[in-house]
Amino acid sequence: MREASFVERNKEKWTLIENNLSINIQVDPDELASNYIELTNDLAYAQTFYPNSKVRNYLNELAVTAHQKIYKDRKASNSRFKSFINEEIPQAIWSIRRQLFYSLLIFVLASAIGFLSAMYDIDFIRLILGDFYVDSTIESIKAGDPAAVYGKGSSFGSAIWITINNVRVAFMAFAFGLFLSIGTGYILFSNGIMLGAFHQMFFQYGVMGKAMSAIWIHGTIEISVIVVAGGCGLAIGNSILFPKSYTRMASFVQTAKTSMKVLVSTIPFFIVAGTLEGFVTRYYNVSVWFSIFIILLSLLAILFFYVINPYRLAKRYQWK
C-alpha cells in the first residue's frame, strides 16, 4: 500500500484518537486502551513500510502520548482508592465518633437489660429467642457441645447466608436512621436484648465460658460492625433533628455521604465474620487458646480501624 493511501484510509481514526488524548475530560479507559492498540498496530506497519516518513514519527508520538495517559489514569485511580481507604474513611469515622459511642452505649445497655431480665424471668429467654431455639440449645448443652448450632450445615453455605444476613441487619440499622434515630435505636436495642438473653441462657447452665469461646470467634467482628452501622444510622437521624447552621436537607445530604463511607468499610469485616462463623467457629473445641487468639486478633483489628487509626490521623491533621 502506498503511504498516501495508508494515510487517507486511517487519518479520520487518528484524528479522533488525537482528540481523545488532547481533551482534559475523563475518557473511558476501555476506549483509551483500544486507541492505544490501534496506534501500535499502525505504528508497526508504518515502521515496516515507511521507516523514514513523517507519518511514522506522528504515530510514534501519538502512541507515546496514549501510553502516558493510560499509565497516568491508572496511577490516579490507584491513588484515589488508597486515599479513600487511608484518609477519607478514617476522617468519616472521626466525624461521627460521638454517634458511634452512643451506639455502643445503647447496645451495651440493652445487652445488660437482656441478661438481667433473663436472670429474673425464666420465660424471658423463650420470649426473645423462641421455644425451638432454646430447646435445641439446651439439648446441645446437655450433650456437652453448647455451640453445636454453629456446626450444622455446610461451611460455605453457612458463611454466605450469615454474611448476607449480617449485612442486612447493618443496612437496616443505617437506613432506619431516617426515622429520626428511633428506628436505629430499636435495631440496636432489640439485638442487644437478644445477645444478653442468649448469654444468660449459657450462664444458667454453667457453660458460659465455653460458649463464649465459640460465639465470640465471629461475634467480636459481627457485633462490633453492627454497632458501627448503628452509629451511622444515629448520625443520619441526628443530622435531621439537629442540622445546626445548615438546612435540614443540606445537613442530611452531607452526613449521609460521610456515614455511607463508614458503612461501606464494614462490608469486608462482615465477610470475615461470616467466614469465621461458617468455617472456623465449629472447631472451637479444638483449643481454647485457638479461640482466644482469634477473638483478640479480631478485637485488635476493630479497635485499630475504628478507634486507634482515626484518632492518630485526627491528631496529625487536626481534624475537628
TrEMBL record:
It holds the Pfam family SpoIIM. The keyword Nucleotide-binding does not apply. It comes from the Bacteria. Keywords: Membrane, Transmembrane, Transmembrane helix. Signal peptide: none annotated. The keyword Cell division does not apply. InterPro entries: SpoIIM-like. The chain crosses the membrane at residues 100-120, 169-189, 223-242, 262-280, 286-308. Coiled coil: none annotated. This is Stage II sporulation protein M. It comes from Sphingobacterium puteale.
